[in-house]
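#onboarding

Welcome to the new folks! Below is a worked example of what a typical request in this channel looks like: someone posts a single protein sequence, and someone else replies with the predicted structure as tokens. Don't worry about understanding the tokens yet, we'll cover that in week two.

Example request:
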Amino acid sequence: MKSDDTNRIDLSFIGKEELKKNETKTITSYPNGDRYEGSIKDGKKHGHGTYYFNNGDKYVGEWNLDKMDGQGKFMWSVGNRYEGSYKDGKMHGYGVFSFVNGEKYVGEWADNMRNGHGTYSWSNGDYYEGDHKDNAFHGRGKHVLTDGDVRKGHWKNNLLMD
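Example response:
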């Protein structure tokens, strides 16, 4: 089976079962070592499925026309984890990103970046709650330190402006 996606040339279908019209459940192995288990429609990942990357990363969730779309969980082999909404293959909407070092972001995403309101917390107990733009503290927010110090006001690119 040929595809315009270079990572999907010469797919090898290991097995499949019929679900409903134009949708099939399958296990697909790719030449680069990746594997997909789940629903496909018209030859594309669509519905619920699990994608195993050859580097150990894994995505479990909803797909739309070969892109992560809807609710899902992405687990990186290094230990980071994201659980939340996807749109067109990117983290978008509400989600929780947990870093292997204990840091965590809970809030809004757009185009794979922290954008909108959310809380970023560090493993030592410090946290920032407020607006984010392009992965930076940007807009109204407060940074609360475990020693009791609170810095609040308007932030721009991680710097407190007032």
